[in-house]
Amino acid sequence: MRCPNDRWHWEQTMTDTPAGTRTGERMKLVTFHVGDDRFATDIFAVERVLRFTPPRPIPNVPAWLDGVIDYGGRVVPVIDLRARFELPAAPSREGARILVFVVGDEWVGAIVDKVDEVATVYESQLEPPPTIFRGLARQYLRALIRGVSDGDPVTVMLDVTELLTARERIVLDHAVASSAAEATHGG
Known about the structure:
This protein has three helices and 13 strands; from the N terminus they run H-E-E-E-E-E-H-E-E-E-E-E-E-E-E-H. By secondary structure, it is an alpha+beta fold. A six-stranded mixed sheet has the order 8-1-2-13-12-9, with helices on one face.
């Protein structure tokens, strides 16, 4: 259950920093949860937030690729971030969303447990990520955002351009193209 003050606390955590530390450029981030962890990504990396609907499965792809959805006239691959980050499967998809990320000229969907809000942070609040953070390799991490006080949770800022390696993109492109052709030709 969500405490009535959770929203205020989150906004305070992300924007109210001690005097003199709100420096650098301001940026807006979309915040969301995967498992017990809070994540964020630049608002300009998010094309859309969609209600969860099961993606259409495609054969011969890694287990963390849940399938594809049709969105905006495109076939969009959908990654299950829990599986990608080697977390246990969600007990339920109730409240889940698909974030459609802009990755170069492509869109990639990602299943998250819930989307919180758009928060404003300052460049000075970002810390370089360690080599590994809570089991996530540095390649996925753009920065860590610490809260105002020691008890506040850390928010992990994802680098969505690194969710897929170049090799995985090639395999994925072939699988998506095959899936699109199969859907078009009925079979």
